[in-house]
Amino acid sequence: MSAGRAVRREAAARWAGGPAPGAHRLGWAIVSHATKNGFSTPYVELDRPAWAALRAATPLSLTEQELDVLRGTADPTSLDEVRDIYLPLSRLLNLYVNATRQRHAAVRSFLGDADRPMPFLIGVAGSVAVGKSTAARLLRTLLAQWPDHPNVELVSTDNFLYPNAVLQERGIMNRKGFPESYDRRALVRFVSAMKAGAAQTELPVYSHLAYDIVPGAVQTVHRPDILIVEGINVLQPPSPGHLAVADFFDFSIYVDAKVEHIRSWYLDRFLELRRTRFEDPRSYFHAIATSVQDAEAREFAMNTWRTINEVNLVENIAPTRGRATLVLYKGADHRVQRVRLRKT
Ligand SMILES: Nc1ncnc2c1ncn2[C@@H]1O[C@H](COP(=O)(O)OP(=O)(O)O)[C@@H](O)[C@H]1O
Ligand SMILES: CC(C)(COP(=O)(O)O)[C@@H](O)C(=O)NCCC(=O)O
């Protein structure tokens, strides 16, 4: 069989939810050491039961009420999901944090440098409406429960979007979320200051309600043990000769799903927001709640998805997936079906 055919067969088997050819069983767990073009890759792919078993003894200490606060609009993430997917991830990240601290201590001792706290940086990437914010908020809560790193801060990259006035002036208001709509230098300056141990940093604040940067508002980030940076663009490669935010990550996560599922999640969420947040007269989309028919609102959402968010997903976001340390593959019901971990 040609390498191309083998790859296509593997991809088809993956989407069908079955094991990839070459996968083998470890006890009852299917573990696939992924291959591409006939070469082995640095990834291992685990199905849900295999991944869930890696939780080991990590306790589930989150209640239904606490989870309710962390969930995004129209996101059905359940306590089962926390137990099976996020507790093993929290355990793995705790191991990473401790190993990274030891590595930093070794380098400091080699250089004869003084002990200096350095936060562990995690990037969370993926499409608009894939559920990154829920994943990032859950991780923040779970990671803060470990005794060694109680202070976990979360920053969304939408805080680094240019204000609407700037996007309009540059004629890129319909490119919100594309790389050029962010102040990427400010974002890199921020993570680099955090990594260098800055005690406190202030950031602009983006409001989804206003659909804009809030003039004069600031988010203050105090020196964290762990900093999670969440946003569609966080795994973007740097332009030649520059650094990108991903260069500062110690671990990165890409939340993935089929385009048709994300499209329907976006649409459902938009219609749910129309019944709730858009009713607020301060909402940028207030007129969609009050002055247009259902069919027109649906058409508006589909058009926004098709012409902005889906184009951005295909052109800029999905191509960064290979850079992530870990990929969470969600099925149509938002539940993670498979996990791909980069081993090296
Ligand atoms: N127009 C909007 N009005 C209010 N909240 C919104 C709006 N669009 C998105 N949100 C909320 O903002 C958060 C981030 O959404 P998004 O950037 O699409 O990423 P994700 O769905 O991957 O978390 C979500 O919790 C979502 O519910
Ligand atoms: C603000 C966003 C780009 C998301 O950015 P992120 O929080 O992931 O950095 C997105 O929610 C958005 O507004 N997209 C533009 C098209 C739309 O209105 O959906």
From TrEMBL:
What EC identifiers does the entry list? 2.7.1.33
Question: GO molecular function terms here?
Answer: ATP binding; pantothenate kinase activity
One GO CC term on file: cytoplasm
For the ligand (ATP), the binding residues are G126, S127, V128, A129, V130, G131, K132, S133
Pathway the protein acts in: Cofactor biosynthesis; coenzyme A biosynthesis; CoA from (R)-pantothenate: step 1/5
Subcellular location field: Cytoplasm
Query: Mind listing the UniProt keywords for this protein, alphabetically?
Result: ATP-binding, Coenzyme A biosynthesis, Cytoplasm, Kinase, Nucleotide-binding, Transferase
Give the residues annotated as coiled coil: none
Source taxonomy lineage?
Bacteria, Bacillati, Actinomycetota, Actinomycetes, Streptosporangiales
Q: What is this protein called?
A: Pantothenate kinase
Subcellular location, principal:
cytoplasm
Species name for this entry?
Marinitenerispora sediminis
An individual GO BP term:
coenzyme A biosynthetic process
